[in-house]
Specification:
The protein has 107 residues and is an alpha+beta fold. It has 5 helices and 4 strands. The protein has helices at residues 7-24, 36-39, 61-68, 84-93, 95-102; strands at 28-34, 48-54, 77-83, 105-106.
C-alpha cells in the first residue's frame, strides 16, 4: 500500500538532511532539490531528487553516493553527487538534465 507523504513533512526532512550534510561534509558547496516535489506535481510514489555539489572528489560520482545516504528518510531518495566541475560539464553533456536540476531550489 502506498501512503501519501505530507509535503510539509517532506520539506522539513529535506531541510534537516541538508543541514546535517553541511555539518558533516565541509566539501558540500550546494544542495539542489529538483523533481516532482519541487515542481508541485508529486504522486504517492514520488521520491525526493537531490543533487549534492562538492568542491572536489576523486571518486566516481556513483561511488560517492553511499557516503551521503541517510539512515532514515520518509520517502525514497535519489541522490546525485557531483563536483563543481562535473556539474558544469553536465550542462554540455546533458543539457536537459542540467536544466531540470537548475530549475529546482537550493536547500
Amino acid at each position: 500500500m502506498v501512503r501519501w507523504a505530507e509535503p510539509e513533512k517532506i520539506d522539513e526532512a529535506v531541510r534537516c538532511f541538508a543541514q546535517d550534510l553541511r555539518a558533516r561534509f565541509p566539501s558540500v558547496v550546494r544542495i539542489l532539490w529538483y523533481g516532482s516535489w519541487v515542481s508541485g506535481v508529486p504522486t504517492p510514489s514520488s521520491d525526493v531528487d537531490l543533487c549534492i555539489i562538492l568542491q572536489s572528489d576523486e571518486r566516481r560520482p556513483r561511488d560517492r553516493v553511499p557516503e551521503f545516504l541517510p539512515l532514515r528518510f520518509p520517502v525514497g531518495l535519489d541522490l546525485v553527487v557531483l563536483t563543481e566541475e562535473e556539474f558544469r560539464e553536465l550542462a554540455a553533456r546533458s543539457p536537459s538534465w542540467h536544466r531540470a536540476i537548475m530549475v529546482g531550489r537550493a536547500v
